[in-house]
UniProtKB/TrEMBL annotation:
Its EC number is 2.7.7.87. This is L-threonylcarbamoyladenylate synthase. GO terms for biological process: regulation of translational fidelity; tRNA processing. It catalyses: L-threonine + hydrogencarbonate + ATP = L-threonylcarbamoyladenylate + diphosphate + H2O. Gene3D superfamilies: DHBP synthase (3.90.870.10). Residues 244-253 have a biased composition (Acidic residues). Belongs to the SUA5 family. L-threonine binds at residues 52, 138, 197. PANTHER family: SUA5, THREONYLCARBAMOYL-AMP SYNTHASE. One of its GO terms (cellular component) is cytoplasm. InterPro entries: DHBP_synth_RibB-like_a/b_dom, Sua5-like_dom, T(6)A37_SUA5, TC-AMP_synthase_SUA5.
Amino acid sequence: MSELDQTPDEPTTSPDEPQWARFDAMAQTSEALAAAQAAIAEGRCIVLPTDTVYGIGANAFSAEAVQGLLDAKHRGRDMPPPVLVAETGMLEALADELPSHAIRLAEAFWPGALTLIVPAQKHLRMDLGETRGTIAVRVPDHDFTRDLLRRTGPLAVSSANVSGQEASTDIDEALRQLGDSVAVYLDAGATAGPTPSTIINFVSEPLGRIVRMGALGIDQLREVDPFLVWEDEPSAEPKPDLAPDAEDEAPAS
C-alpha cells in the first residue's frame, strides 16, 4: 500500500483533557456569549454569573437539558430549578393569573435578588421537575447574563454547586464541584454572594409568603408589599435557649 492510500490516524482525546471550555466573560464577551449560546442549543449545561452566586444553567424548554442540570447537582426532580429571564415583561409569558402583589414586587426589585413562585402557564412547554403547576422566576441584575438570556431565551438555573455543598461565588469553586458535567464556564470574577435571592411564594399565599429570606430584607420588601407573610420573622423576645433549625439548602441563585 502506498503512502497515498494510507488512512490517517483518527484524532484521539486524552482522558485527562478537560471536556469544558472557560471564558473571561468581561474580556472575551463575544466569544463567551457565542460559546454559551451554542452549548445551550446543544442541550448542555453552562455556569454563568449572577448578582448573587454563580448558577448552573440549561435550556428550560428541554427536559433532557434540565435533567442534565439536576444530575450535575446530584439533585432529584423534587427540587426543580427556577427560571431566569432577561426582562420583567417575560413574567406574564410564563405565569398564569398573576397576583397584583407579585407584579408590584417584580416592578420594584427586578432586575435583582428576588425570586417569585407563581402559577405556571397551563400550556407552558417546560419540564423542570415536580413543580405542581408552579414556576419560580427571576431577572438577575447582571448585564452579561441578561445579554445571554436575550440570546438563549429563558434558562433553568440553580446555584452552581453539588447539593449539600456551598454555593459558588467564584468560577474556580464552581469548576471544582461540577467539572466535566458543564460544557462552558463563564468567569466574571467574584459575585456578591454567598447570600442567595429572597424567594416569595404567591401560590401557597396570594398575598405572598417569604419561603427563603435572602439578599432582599423584610423592610425593603414591605415598603412595596406590607402584607407579606413571613412565618420565620423574629419575635420581639427571642428565646436564646432554643437552637435555630438548620436552613434548607438554597435551591437557586
